[in-house]
Amino acid sequence: MKITIAGAAGGEVTGSAYYVQTKTAAVLVDCGLFQGSRRAETLNKPPGGPKQRLDAVLLTHGHLDHTGRLPLLSKRGHRMPVFATPATIEMTALILRDAARIQASDTARRNKKLERAGQPLVQPLYTPEDAETIISCLRPVPYSQPVEIAPGIRAIWNESGHMLGSGSIQLLVDEDGRTKKVVFSGDLGPKNAPILKDYEPFCEADLVFMESTYGDHDHRPFTETVEEFVEIVRTTVEARGKMIVPTFAVGRAQLITGLLGWMFRNNKVKPFPLFLDSPMAIEATEIYARHRELFDEDMIHFIEEKPLAEDLKSLKLCITADESKQINDQPGPCLVMAGAGMCNAGRVLHHLKASLWRRDTHVLIVGYQGNGTLGRQLVDGAETVTIHGDKIAVRAKIHTLGGFSAHAGQTDLMAWFAAIAPSKPRVVLTHGEDGPRNALAALVKERHGIDCQLPAIGDVIEL
Predict the structure, then answer these.
(1) Which fold would CATH assign to domain 222-404?
(2) Within a 10 A sphere around the Cβ of 310, how many other Cβ atoms?
(3) Which residues make Cβ contacts (< 8 Å) with residue 185, sequence separation at least 6?
(4) Tens digit of pLDDT for each residue in 300-343?
(5) Could you read off the pLDDT of 411-428 as tens digits, one per residue?
(6) Strand partners for 363
(7) Cα(70)–Cα(60) distance, rounded to whole angstroms?
(8) 94 SS3 class
(9) 267 Cβ partners below 8 Å, 6+ apart?
(10) Which residues contact 166 (CB under 8 A, 6 or more apart)?
(11) Closest among 107, 244, 207, 84 to 157, alpha carbons compared
């Protein structure tokens, strides 16, 4: 068996993809988009060569950095099944349609400038038609049950606690008279986070591909982060300021909305105007509502006690561009949730452009910010930033709430691995910058005596 690392390696966090070849089959595990810096985005090509065999694709979850290159496969002519949990299928369809729409819009805008300059026009990475073709290939799988996905290969999905429908995947590969077990962690969520169930680790593997996004530290405890969030909101409301939350449409939007409803229900702060300025987040929230079977017990109890909508009567859902523009005229106090979560696209850029220079603005960073993104610049303390070609002074207060991350910190990563460590697997660390990846490798060696491999993109792991 050969497994080619086709993304999220060599210190790169995005673009997750693994091309698995056996004597009888070839499958992809994830097919993610590279995001962030211009250098990363130049890597957005379909994994593998044009004539390489591909029997199936398996998805750990729906985030763009794990699914965003799928339409490149249909564009190339592939028509294989794409296996995922039912919630991941819904999220993937939502996310790919949005990605294709944004690419079409961005390309049209860029071509206007190129045409005026007399330069050759460019094509989008893929079209909405390419996205619809691959969406039609999505096939549902259950949790915790083996599914035959290609000749000689079965796969099991276990809850990974990262986003709605997310899973770690164990491949059971029948080869050379024995069954080899290969585990892909996918993205792992923190234990005891709200809404979703905790991850369920596998207990056996010959080879493990493990994420290391936060392999060098733990997040601030969730309860402390909630206390900090409550205090920021309370003091900003008292000062009649504006809060902007760059929000990942899937996960963070639902978490922050739920927390605000909890605050209102428990009289932590009196209701004030809230804006969910993201059609995609609004659709994602509807998908959450259809999958209560994936919620943890606390969330089920919370929504059975009283419908969340009753707590959130001051929430306005903004679908149209005009509704989004009107938010700029809204005086404080108010809170705006808008995408994209890394401030690298979307409506949040307009809100930041309008308000970053104001001292009564508070920007709440609630998720990972990739290298080269505007979000990372804000976290790193930039005094000025460029938005839509204009230089903007950063006078707003920037708050980084790492405890709201959807990724497991070092302790939770090691707890997940501890369940599988007794089988003494080979370990390959991916999906992390060099610092976190090296730190996690050192800890795995110290506690379990296992040397981890730290591959680059294009490296081949043989089993």
Answers:
(1) Rossmann fold (3.40.50)
(2) 10
(3) 160, 168, 208, 209, 210, 211, 416
(4) 999 999 999 999 999 999 999 999 999 989 999 999 999 888 89
(5) 999 999 999 999 999 999
(6) 244, 398
(7) 13
(8) helix
(9) none
(10) 60, 61, 62, 85, 88, 159, 160, 186, 187, 189
(11) 84
Pinpoint the residues of the chain covered by CATH 3.60.15.10. 2-217+406-462
The answer to whether 363 and 352 have CB atoms below 8 angstroms apart is: yes
What is the spatial distance between Cα 456 and Cα 401, in angstroms, rounded to a whole number? 30
The tokens describing 217, both together, are: 């530290």
Question: Which candidate, 313, 387, 389, places its Cα nearest to that of 347?
Answer: 387
User: Which residue's entry shows tokens 């932590």?
Assistant: 268
> 379 Cβ partners below 8 Å, 6+ apart?
365, 369, 398, 400
Distance between CA atoms of 3 and 462, rounded to whole angstroms?
A: 6
CA angle 349, 322, 324 (to 5 degrees): 35
Both tokens assigned to 86: 């039912």
Contact 263, 269 (CB under 8 A): yes
153: left (phi over 0), alpha (psi -120 to 50) or beta: beta
- The residue type at 29: V
Measured CA to CA, the distance from residue 85 to residue 323 in angstroms comes to 34
Length of the chain in residues, anyone? 463
How many CA atoms lie less than 13 Å away from 77 in the CB half-sphere? 5
251 Cβ contact list (under 8 Å, min separation 6): 162, 163, 164, 367, 406
Determine the Cα–Cα distance for residues 103 and 123; give it in Å rounded to an integer.
9
CATH superfamily of 2-217+406-462: Ribonuclease Z/Hydroxyacylglutathione hydrolase-like (3.60.15.10)
- Burial class of 228 by CB neighbour count within 10 A (0 to 12, 13 to 18, 19+): middle
Band (37; pLDDT cuts 50, 70, 90): low
Interval 133-161: pLDDT, tens: 999 999 999 999 999 999 999 999 999 99
Which residues of the chain are in CATH 3.40.50.10890 domains?
222-404
Ranges of beta strands (E only) in 14-77 are: 17-21, 26-31, 56-58
Single-letter residue type at 353: K
Q: Which residues contact 50 (CB under 8 A, 6 or more apart)?
A: 76
Q: CB burial class (10 A; 0-12, 13-18, 19+) of residue 390?
A: exposed
